[in-house]
Amino acid sequence: MLGSLERDCFDTVFGNIALGPRGAISLMLADGTLVARQPQADAAINTDLGNGSPFARHTSMRSGLMEFRSMRDGVERLAAFTHVGELPLLVSVGYAVADIYSGWWSKTLPIGSCVLLLCGATMAFALQLWREFQRRHAAETELAVIARTDVLTKLDNRRSFDEALEREWRRAIRNDSLLSLCLIDIDHFKAYNDHYGHQAGDEVLKVVAETIARSLDRPGDLSARYGGEEFAVLLPDTPAAGAQAVAEHIRLAIETLFLPHQGSPMAFLSVSLGVGTILPRAKRQQAELIKAADMALYKAKELGRNRTELSRETTLPPSAYADEARAA
Q: Which H or E run includes 239?
Protein backbone atom coordinates (compact mmCIF):
# COMPACT_ATOMS: atom_id res chain seq x y z
CA MET A 1 0.00 0.00 0.00
CA LEU A 2 1.05 3.56 -0.53
CA GLY A 3 1.97 5.62 2.49
CA SER A 4 0.64 9.04 3.37
CA LEU A 5 3.58 10.71 1.58
CA GLU A 6 2.68 9.10 -1.77
CA ARG A 7 -1.03 9.87 -1.31
CA ASP A 8 -0.14 13.49 -0.54
CA CYS A 9 1.89 13.50 -3.76
CA PHE A 10 -1.18 12.23 -5.67
CA ASP A 11 -3.44 14.82 -4.08
CA THR A 12 -0.94 17.60 -4.84
CA VAL A 13 -0.65 16.64 -8.52
CA PHE A 14 -4.33 16.00 -9.24
CA GLY A 15 -6.23 17.89 -6.54
CA ASN A 16 -7.07 20.92 -8.69
CA ILE A 17 -8.01 19.17 -11.95
CA ALA A 18 -11.57 19.85 -13.07
CA LEU A 19 -13.37 16.77 -14.43
CA GLY A 20 -16.90 18.04 -14.13
CA PRO A 21 -19.33 17.41 -11.29
CA ARG A 22 -19.20 13.61 -11.65
CA GLY A 23 -15.65 12.94 -12.95
CA ALA A 24 -13.00 11.07 -10.98
CA ILE A 25 -9.28 10.29 -10.99
CA SER A 26 -8.24 7.05 -9.30
CA LEU A 27 -4.84 5.56 -8.43
CA MET A 28 -4.81 1.78 -8.00
CA LEU A 29 -2.36 -1.02 -7.48
CA ALA A 30 -2.00 -3.46 -10.36
CA ASP A 31 -4.39 -5.88 -8.61
CA GLY A 32 -7.18 -3.28 -8.54
CA THR A 33 -6.79 -2.06 -4.95
CA LEU A 34 -7.76 1.63 -4.69
CA VAL A 35 -5.06 3.70 -2.92
CA ALA A 36 -6.03 7.29 -3.79
CA ARG A 37 -8.92 9.14 -5.45
CA GLN A 38 -10.03 12.60 -6.47
CA PRO A 39 -12.60 13.61 -5.38
CA GLN A 40 -11.47 12.05 -2.13
CA ALA A 41 -13.32 8.96 -0.94
CA ASP A 42 -11.66 7.82 2.26
CA ALA A 43 -14.13 5.00 2.81
CA ALA A 44 -13.11 3.35 -0.46
CA ILE A 45 -9.33 3.58 0.07
CA ASN A 46 -7.58 0.18 0.22
CA THR A 47 -10.67 -1.63 -1.10
CA ASP A 48 -10.30 -4.15 -3.92
CA LEU A 49 -11.85 -2.86 -7.15
CA GLY A 50 -10.44 -5.71 -9.20
CA ASN A 51 -12.75 -8.66 -8.60
CA GLY A 52 -16.00 -8.36 -10.47
CA SER A 53 -15.25 -4.90 -11.86
CA PRO A 54 -14.28 -3.71 -15.35
CA PHE A 55 -10.76 -3.13 -14.08
CA ALA A 56 -10.20 -6.88 -13.73
CA ARG A 57 -10.51 -7.21 -17.53
CA HIS A 58 -8.28 -4.27 -18.41
CA THR A 59 -5.43 -3.87 -15.88
CA SER A 60 -3.30 -6.47 -17.64
CA MET A 61 -2.90 -3.97 -20.53
CA ARG A 62 -0.47 -1.04 -20.36
CA SER A 63 -3.19 1.49 -21.25
CA GLY A 64 -6.63 1.75 -22.79
CA LEU A 65 -10.21 2.99 -22.61
CA MET A 66 -13.23 1.49 -20.89
CA GLU A 67 -16.83 2.43 -20.17
CA PHE A 68 -18.20 1.22 -16.87
CA ARG A 69 -20.65 1.94 -14.08
CA SER A 70 -18.95 2.86 -10.81
CA MET A 71 -19.44 0.36 -8.00
CA ARG A 72 -19.09 3.21 -5.49
CA ASP A 73 -21.55 5.84 -6.71
CA GLY A 74 -23.34 4.18 -9.63
CA VAL A 75 -22.20 6.84 -12.15
CA GLU A 76 -21.53 5.58 -15.66
CA ARG A 77 -18.13 6.84 -16.78
CA LEU A 78 -15.82 6.70 -19.77
CA ALA A 79 -12.29 6.28 -18.43
CA ALA A 80 -8.80 6.19 -19.85
CA PHE A 81 -6.19 4.29 -17.86
CA THR A 82 -2.43 3.72 -18.02
CA HIS A 83 0.31 2.26 -15.85
CA VAL A 84 2.68 4.67 -14.08
CA GLY A 85 6.13 3.96 -15.55
CA GLU A 86 7.51 0.69 -14.17
CA LEU A 87 5.69 1.06 -10.85
CA PRO A 88 2.92 -1.42 -9.97
CA LEU A 89 0.43 1.45 -10.17
CA LEU A 90 -2.45 2.28 -12.49
CA VAL A 91 -3.97 5.75 -12.93
CA SER A 92 -7.49 6.13 -14.30
CA VAL A 93 -9.16 9.37 -15.43
CA GLY A 94 -12.90 9.19 -15.96
CA TYR A 95 -15.61 11.58 -17.14
CA ALA A 96 -19.29 10.90 -16.54
CA VAL A 97 -20.81 9.65 -19.80
CA ALA A 98 -23.81 11.92 -19.33
CA ASP A 99 -21.49 14.93 -19.08
CA ILE A 100 -19.53 13.92 -22.17
CA TYR A 101 -22.52 13.23 -24.44
CA SER A 102 -24.93 15.83 -23.11
CA GLY A 103 -26.13 17.85 -26.12
CA TRP A 104 -23.55 16.24 -28.38
CA TRP A 105 -24.99 12.92 -29.40
CA SER A 106 -25.14 13.85 -33.06
CA LYS A 107 -21.70 15.42 -33.19
CA THR A 108 -19.05 12.74 -33.51
CA LEU A 109 -16.13 15.09 -34.03
CA PRO A 110 -16.38 16.79 -30.63
CA ILE A 111 -16.81 13.38 -29.03
CA GLY A 112 -13.72 12.03 -30.75
CA SER A 113 -11.79 15.13 -29.75
CA CYS A 114 -12.90 14.68 -26.16
CA VAL A 115 -11.68 11.07 -26.17
CA LEU A 116 -8.32 12.10 -27.62
CA LEU A 117 -7.96 14.85 -25.04
CA LEU A 118 -8.89 12.37 -22.32
CA CYS A 119 -6.18 9.95 -23.45
CA GLY A 120 -3.62 12.73 -23.70
CA ALA A 121 -4.51 14.09 -20.30
CA THR A 122 -4.25 10.64 -18.75
CA MET A 123 -0.80 10.08 -20.22
CA ALA A 124 0.31 13.52 -19.05
CA PHE A 125 -1.02 12.88 -15.55
CA ALA A 126 0.73 9.50 -15.39
CA LEU A 127 4.02 11.03 -16.57
CA GLN A 128 3.77 13.83 -14.03
CA LEU A 129 3.04 11.35 -11.24
CA TRP A 130 5.93 9.10 -12.34
CA ARG A 131 8.36 12.04 -12.35
CA GLU A 132 7.22 13.09 -8.89
CA PHE A 133 7.75 9.57 -7.54
CA GLN A 134 11.21 9.46 -9.15
CA ARG A 135 12.15 12.84 -7.68
CA ARG A 136 11.09 11.81 -4.19
CA HIS A 137 12.83 8.44 -4.48
CA ALA A 138 16.07 10.14 -5.56
CA ALA A 139 15.82 12.56 -2.64
CA GLU A 140 15.23 9.75 -0.15
CA THR A 141 18.17 7.77 -1.58
CA GLU A 142 20.45 10.79 -1.28
CA LEU A 143 19.39 11.34 2.32
CA ALA A 144 20.07 7.68 3.12
CA VAL A 145 23.61 7.98 1.69
CA ILE A 146 24.25 11.18 3.64
CA ALA A 147 23.08 9.51 6.85
CA ARG A 148 25.67 6.73 6.37
CA THR A 149 28.62 8.88 5.28
CA ASP A 150 31.17 10.83 7.31
CA VAL A 151 30.89 14.43 6.13
CA LEU A 152 34.62 15.23 6.26
CA THR A 153 36.30 12.08 4.93
CA LYS A 154 33.46 10.70 2.76
CA LEU A 155 34.08 7.24 4.23
CA ASP A 156 31.31 5.30 5.94
CA ASN A 157 30.51 6.74 9.36
CA ARG A 158 30.39 4.92 12.70
CA ARG A 159 26.72 4.06 12.31
CA SER A 160 27.36 2.47 8.91
CA PHE A 161 30.34 0.56 10.33
CA ASP A 162 28.27 -0.83 13.20
CA GLU A 163 25.59 -2.00 10.76
CA ALA A 164 28.22 -3.62 8.51
CA LEU A 165 29.84 -5.39 11.46
CA GLU A 166 26.48 -6.81 12.52
CA ARG A 167 25.74 -7.92 8.95
CA GLU A 168 29.16 -9.51 8.34
CA TRP A 169 29.14 -11.17 11.76
CA ARG A 170 25.89 -13.00 10.95
CA ARG A 171 27.20 -13.94 7.50
CA ALA A 172 30.43 -15.32 8.96
CA ILE A 173 28.42 -17.49 11.37
CA ARG A 174 26.38 -18.87 8.47
CA ASN A 175 29.44 -19.47 6.27
CA ASP A 176 31.75 -20.65 9.08
CA SER A 177 34.31 -18.06 7.91
CA LEU A 178 36.80 -15.74 9.60
CA LEU A 179 36.23 -12.03 10.15
CA SER A 180 39.08 -9.54 10.59
CA LEU A 181 39.14 -5.95 11.80
CA CYS A 182 41.91 -3.38 11.45
CA LEU A 183 41.89 -0.24 13.61
CA ILE A 184 44.06 2.64 12.41
CA ASP A 185 45.16 5.68 14.41
CA ILE A 186 47.12 8.70 13.11
CA ASP A 187 50.27 9.06 15.18
CA HIS A 188 50.64 12.23 17.27
CA PHE A 189 47.58 13.81 15.67
CA LYS A 190 47.02 16.27 18.52
CA ALA A 191 50.56 17.53 18.07
CA TYR A 192 49.87 17.89 14.33
CA ASN A 193 46.79 20.02 15.03
CA ASP A 194 48.68 22.11 17.59
CA HIS A 195 51.53 22.80 15.16
CA TYR A 196 49.71 23.17 11.81
CA GLY A 197 46.17 24.13 12.86
CA HIS A 198 42.86 22.33 12.77
CA GLN A 199 42.17 23.13 9.11
CA ALA A 200 45.40 21.39 8.13
CA GLY A 201 44.38 18.54 10.44
CA ASP A 202 41.12 18.15 8.56
CA GLU A 203 43.03 17.97 5.27
CA VAL A 204 45.26 15.24 6.69
CA LEU A 205 42.18 13.25 7.75
CA LYS A 206 40.89 13.47 4.17
CA VAL A 207 44.23 12.33 2.71
CA VAL A 208 44.50 9.40 5.11
CA ALA A 209 40.88 8.38 4.38
CA GLU A 210 41.49 8.46 0.61
CA THR A 211 44.69 6.42 1.00
CA ILE A 212 42.91 3.78 3.09
CA ALA A 213 40.06 3.51 0.58
CA ARG A 214 42.52 3.14 -2.34
CA SER A 215 44.37 0.38 -0.50
CA LEU A 216 41.34 -1.94 -0.42
CA ASP A 217 40.84 -4.18 -3.45
CA ARG A 218 37.75 -6.25 -2.65
CA PRO A 219 34.21 -4.82 -2.96
CA GLY A 220 33.19 -6.46 0.32
CA ASP A 221 35.87 -4.71 2.40
CA LEU A 222 34.66 -1.62 4.25
CA SER A 223 36.58 1.42 5.42
CA ALA A 224 35.04 3.82 7.93
CA ARG A 225 35.90 6.74 10.13
CA TYR A 226 35.68 5.18 13.56
CA GLY A 227 36.02 8.42 15.52
CA GLY A 228 38.34 11.43 15.70
CA GLU A 229 41.64 10.48 14.04
CA GLU A 230 40.82 6.74 14.17
CA PHE A 231 39.68 4.64 11.22
CA ALA A 232 38.41 1.06 10.87
CA VAL A 233 38.69 -1.48 8.08
CA LEU A 234 36.39 -4.50 8.16
CA LEU A 235 37.69 -7.51 6.21
CA PRO A 236 35.16 -10.34 5.78
CA ASP A 237 36.38 -13.89 5.12
CA THR A 238 39.98 -12.85 5.79
CA PRO A 239 42.49 -14.78 7.94
CA ALA A 240 44.94 -13.05 10.28
CA ALA A 241 47.86 -13.17 7.84
CA GLY A 242 45.77 -11.63 5.06
CA ALA A 243 44.46 -8.88 7.34
CA GLN A 244 47.99 -8.12 8.52
CA ALA A 245 49.12 -7.81 4.90
CA VAL A 246 46.28 -5.35 4.15
CA ALA A 247 47.18 -3.34 7.25
CA GLU A 248 50.87 -3.17 6.28
CA HIS A 249 49.90 -2.07 2.78
CA ILE A 250 47.88 0.79 4.27
CA ARG A 251 50.68 1.75 6.67
CA LEU A 252 53.31 1.88 3.93
CA ALA A 253 50.99 3.79 1.57
CA ILE A 254 50.55 6.52 4.19
CA GLU A 255 54.23 6.51 5.22
CA THR A 256 55.41 6.98 1.61
CA LEU A 257 53.27 10.10 1.26
CA PHE A 258 56.06 11.75 3.31
CA LEU A 259 53.71 14.39 4.67
CA PRO A 260 55.69 16.68 7.04
CA HIS A 261 54.85 16.31 10.73
CA GLN A 262 57.07 18.37 12.99
CA GLY A 263 55.18 17.12 16.04
CA SER A 264 56.32 13.54 15.43
CA PRO A 265 59.75 12.08 16.25
CA MET A 266 59.80 10.69 12.69
CA ALA A 267 59.17 14.17 11.20
CA PHE A 268 56.57 12.75 8.78
CA LEU A 269 52.99 11.57 9.07
CA SER A 270 52.49 7.93 10.07
CA VAL A 271 49.82 5.62 11.43
CA SER A 272 49.67 2.76 13.91
CA LEU A 273 47.48 -0.26 13.21
CA GLY A 274 45.99 -3.08 15.26
CA VAL A 275 44.54 -6.22 13.68
CA GLY A 276 42.13 -8.71 15.24
CA THR A 277 40.76 -11.87 13.69
CA ILE A 278 37.99 -14.08 15.02
CA LEU A 279 35.81 -17.00 14.00
CA PRO A 280 32.32 -15.67 14.80
CA ARG A 281 30.00 -17.91 16.75
CA ALA A 282 26.51 -17.29 18.10
CA LYS A 283 27.86 -17.50 21.66
CA ARG A 284 30.50 -14.85 20.96
CA GLN A 285 30.09 -11.09 20.97
CA GLN A 286 31.20 -8.64 18.30
CA ALA A 287 32.85 -6.65 21.08
CA GLU A 288 35.49 -9.40 21.30
CA LEU A 289 36.74 -8.56 17.81
CA ILE A 290 36.78 -4.82 18.48
CA LYS A 291 38.59 -5.34 21.78
CA ALA A 292 41.21 -7.56 20.14
CA ALA A 293 41.96 -5.03 17.40
CA ASP A 294 42.00 -2.19 19.95
CA MET A 295 44.48 -4.00 22.20
CA ALA A 296 46.71 -4.68 19.21
CA LEU A 297 46.54 -0.98 18.28
CA TYR A 298 47.51 -0.03 21.84
CA LYS A 299 50.48 -2.39 21.61
CA ALA A 300 51.58 -0.81 18.30
CA LYS A 301 51.59 2.62 19.97
CA GLU A 302 53.41 1.26 23.02
CA LEU A 303 56.15 -0.22 20.84
CA GLY A 304 56.91 3.07 19.09
CA ARG A 305 54.09 3.71 16.59
CA ASN A 306 54.24 3.53 12.77
CA ARG A 307 53.81 -0.23 12.92
CA THR A 308 51.20 -3.00 12.64
CA GLU A 309 50.48 -5.35 15.50
CA LEU A 310 48.44 -8.55 15.43
CA SER A 311 46.19 -9.49 18.33
CA ARG A 312 47.07 -12.71 20.12
CA GLU A 313 43.78 -12.96 21.99
CA THR A 314 41.62 -13.99 19.03
CA THR A 315 44.18 -14.85 16.37
CA LEU A 316 44.26 -18.64 16.64
CA PRO A 317 46.12 -21.17 14.46
CA PRO A 318 44.00 -22.94 11.81
CA SER A 319 43.91 -26.14 13.89
CA ALA A 320 42.36 -24.26 16.80
CA TYR A 321 39.64 -22.88 14.53
CA ALA A 322 38.99 -26.39 13.22
CA ASP A 323 38.76 -27.77 16.76
CA GLU A 324 36.36 -25.00 17.74
CA ALA A 325 34.23 -25.61 14.63
CA ARG A 326 34.00 -29.33 15.46
CA ALA A 327 33.13 -28.59 19.08
CA ALA A 328 30.35 -26.22 18.01
A: none
What is the bridge-based pairing of β-strands 308-310 and 34-38?
unpaired
Is 301 buried (19+), middle (13-18) or exposed (0-12) by CB count in 10 A?
middle
Contact 318, 169 (CB under 8 A): no
State the Cα–Cα distance between residues 175 and 170, nearest whole angstrom.
Answer: 9
Q: What does DSSP say about strands 222-227 and 230-236: parallel, antiparallel, or unpaired?
A: antiparallel
pTM tops 0.70: no
Torsion from C-alpha of 141, 144, 145, 148, nearest 10 degrees: -170
For 191-219, give the DSSP string. HHHHHH-HHHHHHHHHHHHHHHHHT--ST
- Count other Cβ atoms within 10 Å, centred on residue 70: 19
CA–CA separation, 272 and 77 (whole Å):
75
pLDDT at residue number 11: 62
> What number is the average pLDDT over the span 268-292?
95
Of 275, 278, 264, nearest in space to 310 by CA:
275
The secondary structure of residue 101, as a DSSP letter, is H
- Mean pLDDT rounded to a whole number for the chain: 82
